[in-house]
Structures are given as structure tokens and as C-alpha cells.
Amino acid sequence: MDDLLSEFDMRPQPTAERPLLGLTILVVEDSRYASEAIRLMSLRSGARLRRADCLGSAERHLNVYAPTVAIVDIGLPDGSGLDLIRSMAEHKTAGQVILGTSGAEREEAEKQVMEAGADGFVSKPVPSIAAFQAAILAHLPQDLHPKGPRMAAITSVDPDPLALREDLSHAMDLLALDAPPVGYLKRFLIGLARGIKDQSLENKAQEMSDTLRATDRAALRTLLSVRIQAMPEIV
């Protein structure tokens, strides 16, 4: 606890333009597209960002340092983010903020993360930089807030298309497996579809059954392939 308080004393002070200046945010998120959006919002807000794409990577990060803020997706490739939230909540240090996030089943997800010990919930996609900042500032001690009034940035961010291509390709790779992880893949695609406002993809993901018949798998692969082919070439 003393180390964390000392870090607060030494870190740069937040400003109206950069209200999260000096914070270190750990985002535990398997989607490159969602991670890139959080990275851009963190950058605009003054925070430093570190990313873990699974529980194992997150645990390695946490063995080295204690982030000021952790944003944990509950659907991860190697397990549930709820387990990580519970563990972090048990060993939480003074001033630390734990937020859960999900792009699928949002109401149920919010209930689950709060029961696991999180301070709050952030649904994906985050609509604006102002909403991102507000979700974090709402749980920080008052002395870590910027002094005086500030202009809230209501603009959104535009993640690198390469991140989206990687997510779509990742889903394609999972569908090519003999036994795809249907539950995980369904949540992944719903969250991604909502992030890019792709209603057709979201509808197709919502229709996925636990068995995922060969015809449904082929139709989903075709839809993803069309999305990838329609993207600009990366040069």
C-alpha cells in the first residue's frame, strides 16, 4: 500500500485536458480492436496502458506491478475474467480501481462483475472519450481528480483497421478448428460486431447454437471472409 501511495505522490498531476495523467491502466482484453480503442482513449486522457490478452498474461503483469486501474473483459480465451476480478478484489490496494467489461449480455455481465467485487462496469463499445474518463474518475479518490472544471471530450476514437482485420482473422481461425469454442467465440463476435456497428454480424453471432452445424459454420466463415476482403489493403 505504501508503494502505491508513494507512486501517487510522485506521478504527474492530472489536468483538465488530460484528467487521467499519471495513471497506469491494465486492460485485460482478447480483442485487438477493443484494446486499440482503449489505448487511444487512454492516450488522449494522459494514462499509460498495458495490455494482457488472457488470464495467464494478466497474472504475469500483476506479479510485476499494481496498475492504478484494471479493465477486465469477462470473456477470455483461457477462462473467465470474473475469476481475475475476484482475485484482484481480494488483494486490492488503496486507490486501485477494478472495472469489468463486456460487449455481450451486458445487464447480466454487469451483475456478475459487481458480485465478483469490481468497482464498476463498462459496456463495450465505450461511446466516447468522455464516457471512458467518467467511468474511471467515478471510482478514483477525489484527490486524484483534476482541479477545476474540464471540457469533456465527447468524441469517439477510430481504432487501426489492422486491429479489426486481426480480430476477424482470429475468429476465422477458431471456426476452422475441429471443435471450435462456440461459447467463447459467440461472445467474442457479438462484442466485436457491436464495436463496429455490424448488425448482420451480430445477428449471425446471436444465432450460433452450442452444436454449430457445418452449414452454420460455413455461412459464418463466408460472412467473415467477405468482411475481410472488403477492407482496404494494408501497405
Fold topology:
Elements: H1 2-10, E1 24-28, H2 32-45, E2 48-52, H3 55-64, E3 69-73, E4 75-76, E5 79-80, H4 81-90, E6 97-102, H5 106-116, E7 120-123, H6 129-137, H7 161-175, H8 182-196, H9 199-206, H10 214-230
Parallel strand pairs: 1-2, 1-3, 3-6, 6-7
Antiparallel strand pairs: 4-5
Task: Give a short overview.
With 235 residues, this protein is α/β, with parallel strands linked by helices. It has ten helices and seven strands.
Description:
With 235 residues, this protein is an alpha/beta fold. The protein folds into two domains: 2-144, Rossmann fold (3-Layer(aba) Sandwich), CATH 3.40.50.2300; 161-229, no CATH class. Helices cover 50% and strands 12% of the residues. It is built from ten helices and seven strands. The chain has helices spanning 2-10, 32-45, 55-64, 81-90, 106-116, 129-137, 161-175, 182-196, 199-206, 214-230; strands at residues 24-28, 48-52, 69-73, 75-76, 79-80, 97-102, 120-123. The strands form two sheets. A five-stranded parallel sheet has the order 2-1-3-6-7, sandwiched between helices. Helix 2 runs antiparallel to helix 7 (161-175), helix 7 packs antiparallel against helix 8 and helix 7 (161-175) packs antiparallel against helix 10. The longest helix is centred in the last third of the chain and has 17 residues, at 214-230. It is globular and about 55 Å long. The mean pLDDT is 89.
